[in-house]
Amino acid sequence: MREGDGIISLSDWIYWHVFKPTFGYYNGSLMFAITFVLVCWIFCWVMYKRKIFLKV
């Protein structure tokens, strides 16, 4: 995504335009981290329920 003079990642854009204005600097960072962990957890939980396992 373009932002000003450079390209900004999607996660940075979400933090700066959703979480920071809503919760402030410190709480916005905390809420972004909690949301990230929840999204990863839900993704893994859905894969587990469908019995999809990735072997490395």
Sheet of most strands? 2 strands, antiparallel
How does the helix and strand content classify structurally? mainly alpha
Shape by Cα distribution: elongated
Strand tally: 2
Number of separate helices:
2
Your description of this structure?
This protein has 56 residues and is mainly alpha-helical. 70% of the residues lie in helices and 7% in strands. Strands 1-2 form a two-stranded antiparallel sheet. Helix 1 packs across helix 2. The longest helix is centred in the middle third of the chain and has 25 residues. The protein is elongated and about 45 Å long. It starts with a strand and ends in a 7-residue tail after the last helix.
Helix and strand topology:
Layout: E1 2-3, E2 6-7, H1 10-23, H2 25-49
Antiparallel strand pairs: 1-2
Helix pairs in contact: 1-2
Task: Describe, in short, the structure shown.
With 56 residues, the protein is mostly helical. It has helices at 10-23, 25-49, and strands spanning 2-3, 6-7. Helix 1 (10-23) crosses helix 2 (25-49).
